[in-house]
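I'll show a sample.
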Amino acid sequence: MAVFHTPMITLSDGNLIPQIGLGVLRIDDEGVTPVVESALEAAIAISTAPRATTTKRRGRALKNTGFTQGERRKSLWVTTK
């Protein structure tokens, strides 16, 4: 397994958030889940722009990588533009 070193930004409250983000708008529907899984493992922020098919596949990636509960879920940031 690869080791990633994603640059982080320190927020004013001391929390860290990934400096690199991934947009999934132009990724074909079948490619979204594996790409998002890789991004989660690399601690890259994921775009949450609403689109029915990518929303489902992003959710599947969260479930597949264990980010839907417990400590991994607590480590996720939910942001918007």
Remarks:
- The CA atoms of residues 55 and 74 lie 20 Å apart.
- The chain is about 40% helix and 10% strand.
- The beta strands are 8-10, 16-18, 21-22, 45-46.
- The first strand starts at residue 8 and ends at 10.
